[in-house]
Design goal:
47% helix; alpha/beta; binds nicotinamide-adenine-dinucleotide; 16% strand; seven-stranded parallel sheet; Rossmann fold; globular; two-stranded parallel sheet; single chain; 274 residues; 9 helices
Length: 274
């Protein structure tokens, strides 16, 4: 039986992927900085009917000790870590670069970029010894060079995640490690992330124009998680991108938006994220 470790998986995409992995009889270690949400998430996974097991471990991806502890914990429980997903991430307040505080910029870069880099560094050391494994990093707005007001630092981090993951794939190929690396591109997901910045410390008030675009292009994370997990479980290649919102799908959504009306935000205001 395979084992996956997912960072930032107490809610949102990470949690939904954990559920799909369990449904596919893959052992899951969920981890998050938010202890309360993590406990709730573990209880939900425990109530699922699966031959595989779920475990949970607190981990702040900005802390090396926490990451090392998460790796140790997962190995103690399941021996081998087959798949590692760097999913933890925070959004940015809707402000221009010069309106952000140094702290806000540091939080975004520390979690969204350096967290993924440091987790990768440490899990690669394990997977290189195993001579097998797969690492997937979550892309986001900016990964494809798109730009918009209020996402400059987040976009910088996610653009760098794309470069980083591609470079990592090349290094694994050059060193013949047996480890494969890929990118998950989830598009727009209706999660708490959309209305919370820098780790739920600040609220984001979405403009009507932004909500309109999100209503057209967005999806709940459970459906996206199925696509991502199927992609990961079937993938044997290095340097892949598993993408949900393709250009073709986005164009189709805009073309059909006048007779396919959706309003996720009324539901999100009421706390619904799935
Ligand atoms: N929601 C979207 O529209 C969207 C679009 C593209 C990419 N993404 C990316 O997908 C990933 C998941 O997003 P989501 O929408 O599920 O967000 P979410 O806010 O619902 O979940 C993110 C989780 O990460 C955790 N987290 C935050 N800081 C952490 C830290 N320092 N250490 C460990 N965990 C931490 C949070 O507690 C939370 O449980 C993120 O990388 C995000 O950038 C999101």
């Amino acid at each position: 039986m395979k084992t996956v470790v997912i960072t930032g998986s107490a809610r949102g995409l990470g949690f939904e992927m954990a559920k799909v992995f369990l449904n596919n009889n893959v052992n899951v270690v969920i981890s998050d900085v938010n202890e309360e949400n993590l406990k709730r998430a573990k209880e939900k996974l425990d109530s699922m009917d699966s031959q595989a097991k779920a475990e949970s471990c607190i981990c702040n991806v900005t802390k090396t000790d926490d990451i090392e502890n998460l790796i140790r914990f997962a190995k103690e429980k399941f021996n081998t870590i087959d798949i590692w997903v760097n999913n933890a991430g925070v959004n940015q307040p809707e402000k221009a670069v010069w309106e952000l505080t140094e702290d806000e910029i540091n939080v975004i870069l520390d979690i969204d970029l350096k967290g993924t880099i440091n987790c990768t560094r440490l899990i690669m050391q394990e997977m290189e010894k195993q001579k097998s494994g797969a690492i997937y990093n979550v892309e986001g707005y900016g990964s494809n060079d798109a730009m918009m007001l209020g996402l400059s630092i987040y976009g910088t981090a996610k653009r760098a995640i794309t470069y980083f993951t591609q470079a990592l794939a090349k290094e694994n190929e050059a060193k013949n490690t047996g480890v494969i690396v890929g990118r998950l591109s989830p598009g727009i997901m209706i999660t708490d992330f959309l209305v919370n910045a820098v780790g739920d410390k600040e609220k984001i008030v979405l403009s009507e124009k932004t909500k309109k675009v999100y209503n057209i292009l967005g999806d709940y994370p459970d459906i996206i998680a199925k696509h991502m997990v199927n992609g990961m479980l079937n993938n044997k290649k290095n340097n892949v991108q598993i993408q949900w919102l393709t250009n073709g799908k986005a164009a189709w959504r805009f073309m059909t938006s006048s007779f396919n009306k959706r309003d996720f935000f009324k539901a999100l205001d009421e706390g619904k994220t799935e």
